[in-house]
From TrEMBL, chain A:
Family: Belongs to the binding-protein-dependent transport system permease family. LivHM subfamily.
Pfam families: BPD_transp_2 (PF02653)
Record's bilayer topology term: Multi-pass membrane protein
UniProt signal peptide: none
Single annotated GO MF: transmembrane transporter activity
Entry keyword set: Amino-acid transport, Cell membrane, Membrane, Transmembrane, Transmembrane helix, Transport
Compartments reported by the entry: Cell membrane
Name of the molecule in the record: Branched-chain amino acid ABC transporter permease
CDD domains for this protein: TM_PBP1_LivH_like
Automatic annotation (TrEMBL), chain B:
Main location: membrane
Signal peptide residue numbers: none
Membrane spanning residue stretches: 20-45, 57-83, 103-124, 178-198, 228-247, 267-287, 299-317
Topology within the bilayer: Multi-pass membrane protein
Top-level taxon: Bacteria
Organism: Micromonospora orduensis
Gene Ontology MF terms in the entry: branched-chain amino acid transmembrane transporter activity
Key words of the record: Cell membrane, Membrane, Transmembrane, Transmembrane helix
Name under which the protein is recorded: Branched-chain amino acid ABC transporter permease
Subcellular location: Cell membrane
Length: 293, 337
């Protein structure tokens, strides 16, 4: 039983990363119809940025947790204005290709400067040690990640459903033309939303730094799993992306623990789930049907 | 309310991803002349480049044409074609090592394996269109990558398959120069097959599906089945390229299955020109040559250059080389009339 709780907890923690990344992807996709391939690269930049800030300027984790998301969010906004914006009227595939190219560039820039080896990042002292929940001990840092990510998801949900800005964003996501016809300047919100999504990726990266190896390729394979997550949840659905993120984290952790004779399971189970979802509900668990093709 | 058949099925796709320009006005003699020039270049190539690079160009040309068959002529962007290229590379390598068959038979076995793998992946992927199709194929290809990585007893994991023989009835093909001419007929057959598919009634239906799936469906075509057939054919042709690549390098590494390989195949097609078929061949030549030159000059960050090309082409040059040339020819012809 204690093993089960442990696995569930770890699954939720890795699910928190999927959820944060999927949330950013979903928000960006909703507003811009852009699937941002570079999301994994921005996650990596978040972690790397925190590492560089600490080692070269002595900036602590807590400051990095604010600086990196804001900085990367601004970078994302500049990127949206400079290139992505030009392609949003075309087929979404072009922006997918563009961000794929950006991924290669960003990864290699970091590789060129810092090499490919992994760098350790110390857990902030406030969060080292472990917390005791009745029968089990959990590392404090992981408890913090889980709480922080959950809080963030709830905050985003609150902004989207309870504030005027959220209402505009949701309306623009569902019916951009009609929203414009009501006199709402949809274009004004595109750039900030893109920046926000990128900022979330950067935040996930900073959170990952003390827990995972910081290296230029840390976001490369992760982003593909996140794509599978959003296909499962339904890319159009923000709630679906977050739920699928936590769900896949759990399924992976349980698969790893209880099917440990088959090491391949934990890596491929997400794709098997995706295949099942495509058979059962091609639009994703929480997605809406596309028009028949 | 009534819904007109003419509206594209997916409103988020205002224009199909195509640099396709009507080339119907190019006179017949010009086409034969182009074909003749192309064949001459193909025969001359290993005299002007390192033969090993020329071999790579042939393999990548098949890969690009396979991707364009889907992207340019069916309107499906597969971002996971490394699954077929790489699976065929591994199967070809294993067959060549363990069965000692002539390499064309090993490559055929590899390509067939790729086609078989394309059936379930394609069946699931064609349930989605547009950007979702790209994500789904990408994800399944990553799954194949993980399986190959874990299945070390067969694939040797990160060490790769070493010592893939170039057996052909006892002929000595160790020199890349002669090996190039040994694979050229196979590659030309593959390219001709792609051309035949595009210009068959089946290929016309694919283009119809690309341009307006709803109308194709209304006309009674089983859209999913057509897409799946195109996907499997494309997987087979990509497999031919991957198998030849394995024999050409006498070595198979996990790289052949990685998503960067899938992405590179798409860049090659976009650079050459989507929906032009031969543009992909041209793109393969340029990208392979460029990468060889970069790695030869000791430049480490190849991704910086390929990524840069990707960004530039997508932002400024979406018709690609062949598409731009065709548009230019078209405009010149129109002016003369």
């Amino acid at each position: 039983m204690s093993g089960f709780a442990q696995n569930t907890f770890n699954g939720l923690v890795s699910g928190a990363f999927y959820a944060l990344l999927a949330l950013g992807l979903a928000v960006i996709f909703g507003m811009l119809r852009v699937v941002n391939f570079a999301h994994g690269a921005f996650y990596m930049l978040g972690a790397f940025g925190a590492y560089v800030l600490l080692t070269e300027a002595g900036v602590p984790f807590w400051a990095a947790l604010v600086i990196m998301p804001v900085g990367l969010g601004l970078l994302g906004m500049a990127l949206e204005r400079a290139v992505i914006h030009r392609l949003t009227r075309l087929d979404p595939l072009y922006n997918f290709l563009l961000t794929f190219g950006l991924t290669l560039i960003l990864q290699d820039l970091v590789k060129l400067r810092y090499g490919v080896q992994s760098s350790p990042y110390a857990t902030p002292s406030l969060l080292s040690g472990s917390v005791n929940f009745g029968l089990f001990d959990f590392p404090t840092y992981r408890v913090f990640i889980l709480g922080f990510a959950a809080l963030l998801c709830v905050a985003v949900w609150w902004v989207l459903t309870r504030t005027r800005i959220g209402m505009v964003v949701r309306a623009a996501t569902e019916r951009p033309d009609l929203t414009r016809a009501f006199g709402i300047d949809v274009g004004r919100w595109v750039t900030p939303v893109f920046g926000f999504g990128i900022g979330l990726a950067g935040l996930a990266g900073v959170l990952a730094a003390p827990m995972r190896a910081v290296n230029p390729l840390m976001g490369a394979d992760l982003i593909i799993v996140v794509f599978a997550v959003v296909v499962i949840g339904g890319l159009g659905s923000i709630f679906g992306s977050v739920a699928a993120g936590f769900g896949i984290g759990l399924v992976q952790a349980w698969g790893e623990a209880y099917l440990s004779h088959f090491p391949i399971v934990s890596q491929t189970i997400v794709f098997v789930v995706m295949a099942g979802v495509l058979l059962w509900r091609p639009a994703g668990l929480f997605g809406r049907e596309e028009a028949p093709a | 309310m009534t819904s007109t058949v003419d509206t594209p099925a997916d409103a988020s796709r205002p224009s199909p991803p195509s640099g396709l320009v009507a080339v119907a006005h190019v006179p017949g003699w010009a086409r034969y002349a182009l074909l003749a020039v192309g064949l001459l270049v193909a025969v001359w190539l290993p005299n002007g480049l390192y033969p090993a690079v020329a071999v790579d160009i042939l393999c990548w040309a098949l890969f690009a044409v396979a991707v364009d068959l889907l992207l340019g002529f069916t309107g499906l962007m597969s971002f996971g074609h490394a699954a077929f290229w790489g699976t065929s590379a591994y199967v070809t390598g294993l067959v060549a090592i363990h069965a000692g068959l002539p390499f064309p038979l090993a490559v055929l076995a590899g390509a067939l394996a790729a086609a078989v793998l394309a059936v379930p992946i394609g069946y699931l992927a064609v349930k989605r269109t547009g950007i979702y199709f790209a994500m789904v194929t990408l994800a399944f290809a990553q799954m194949v990558y993980y399986v190959a990585n874990e299945w070390r007893s067969v694939t040797q994991g990160e060490n790769g398959l070493q010592g893939v023989p170039r057996e052909l009835f006892g002929l000595d093909l160790t020199d890349d120069y002669y090996f190039y001419y040994a694979i050229l007929p196979i590659v030309l057959l593959g390219l001709a097959a792609a051309w035949r598919i595009v210009h068959s009634p089946f290929g016309r239906v694919l283009v119809g599906i690309r341009d307006n799936p709803a109308r194709a469906r209304a006309l009674g075509y089983p859209v999913h089945r057509y897409k799946l057939t195109a996907f499997v054919l494309s997987g087979f042709i990509a497999g031919l390229g991957g198998g030849l690549f394995a024999v050409g390098h006498r070595f198979v590494s996990l790289d052949v299955l990685h998503w960067t390989t899938s992405g590179k195949a798409v860049i090659v097609v976009v650079l050459g020109g989507i929906g032009t078929l031969w543009g992909g061949v041209l793109g393969a030549g340029i990208v392979v040559r460029l990468e060889d030159w970069l790695s030869f000059s000791g430049f480490e960050a190849i991704g910086l250059v390929t990524g840069g090309i990707f960004v530039l082409v997508v932002v400024l040059f979406r018709r690609g080389i062949w598409g731009s040339a065709a548009a230019l020819a078209h405009r010149l012809a129109a002016r003369r009339r």
